[in-house]
Design a protein that fits this description.
With 358 residues, this protein is mainly β. The chain has a domain of 149 residues. Helix content is 7%, strand content 52%. The chain contains 1 helix and 33 strands. The strands form 2 sheets. It has a 17-stranded mixed sheet, with no helix packed on it. A 16-stranded mixed sheet has the order 1-4-7-3-9-11-13-15-17-19-21-23-25-27-33-29. It is elongated.
């Protein structure tokens, strides 16, 4: 009986392999070559399958559609209209279908697939728009605007010259540098970005955020990770529900909030800026230049420890406070540095505050 059972299993396995082989044997490849000019457009819309783009020196576009089931050939279109090379495929039986395309580097791309990966292996000196229903997207440098979206994969991008929008339903995002405005969002991954040449808006529902220098304002938010930024000239908003916040070389104002982490900030306040730091369960460390003209109000909830002789050590500073008060179980220290100026508020519900002289 055991031998009969094993024999049946082997027969079923052979049938599965044979069915897969017959399916592939009915699949064919189709390719076309078109004469094109620099600055032309490639438009791809396919129901499924990976898309791989490479560049070459030829003034031609080469398109190869692989593993097309014979019954799906009527759903495949590869054609040229004016300055556009158009590829469309809406087949349902070509499970192993994918595209390989070679174009000049000075080309505009508009690519979408219902469920595969998109890979652009070399630099593209044009506008790029990429979308997939659930795969990864990877590309090198882009010489113009960039728009990328995936339903649940990772996004990996090199340097981008123009405005950039990146979104994924649940993967990680990594970008080297963007020379203009940047908007990034993911439903549950980490975000790592180099420098941003304009304003930056970055959000994730559950990962860490790391950003280099921002030549404008920055808005950073995560529901459950850490946030770090290495510089900004405009206003910075940083919000996390459960991580630490590290903000360095900020020459504008800051609004930072965390429900359960520490906040570190290196601030160079401008004349009209206002900054606020709030944590429900961590410490706050603020570093300022010795000649900063600011007013500081630092508050720590001390509860029933208000009468302890060491309670004032909950707020330490390299600067002398102008007033020290305990009010409604809160320790409050106020500072006026160099005649006063920009307002800074520091608040923690169960941590300590340290104000450092740079």
């Amino acid at each position: 009986m055991k031998n009969q059972f094993l024999s049946r299993i082997a027969t079923v396995a052979m049938l599965i392999l044979l069915t897969g082989f017959l399916s592939l044997s009915n699949a064919i490849d189709k390719d076309k070559t078109f004469n094109v000019s620099k600055g032309d457009n490639l438009e791809v819309s396919v129901s499924n399958g990976n898309i791989t783009i490479s560049t070459w020196e030829n003034d031609q576009a080469y398109v190869k559609a692989k593993n097309v089931n014979e019954e799906d050939l009527k759903y495949l279109k590869i054609e040229q209209k004016g300055n556009k090379v158009i590829v469309e495929f809406k087949g349902k039986d070509s499970d192993n279908f994918y595209l390989e395309i070679a174009i000049p580097s000075q080309f505009n791309l508009d690519l979408s697939t219902g469920g595969g990966n998109i890979s652009v292996k070399e630099n593209i000196n044009g506008k790029v728009e990429l979308a997939t229903g659930g795969g990864n997207i990877e590309l090198n440098d882009v010489g113009d605007k960039l728009s990328v979206s995936t339903g649940g994969g990772n996004i990996l991008v090199g340097k981008v010259e123009g405005e950039t929008e990146l979104s994924t339903g649940g993967g990680n995002i990594s970008v080297k540098d963007v020379k203009s405005k940047l908007e990034v969002s993911t439903g549950g991954g980490n975000i790592s970005i180099g420098n941003i040449g304009g304003n930056g808006e970055v959000s994730t529902a559950g990962g860490n955020i790391s950003v280099g220098k921002v030549s404008g304002s920055a808005k950073l938010s995560t529901a459950g990770g850490n946030i770090s930024i290495d510089g900004a000239t405009g206003k910075v908003e940083a919000n996390t529900a459960g991580g630490n916040i590290s903000l360095e070389n900020i020459s504008g104002s800051i609004e930072a909030n965390t429900a359960g982490g520490n906040i570190y900030a290196d601030l160079i306040p401008s004349s009209n800026s206002k900054s606020e730091f709030n944590t429900a369960g961590g410490d706050i460390s603020l570093t300022l230049p010795a000649d900063a003209k600011v007013n500081i109000e630092a508050t720590v909830y001390v509860g029933n420890h208000a009468s302890d002789p060491d309670v004032e050590k909950m707020i330490k500073s390299d600067f002398e406070p102008t007033t020290v008060d305990i009010n409604n179980k809160n320790l409050i220290k106020k500072f006026m540095l160099n005649g006063g100026g920009s307002m800074i508020e520091l608040n923690t519900a169960s941590g300590k505050i340290k104000i450092n002289k740079k």
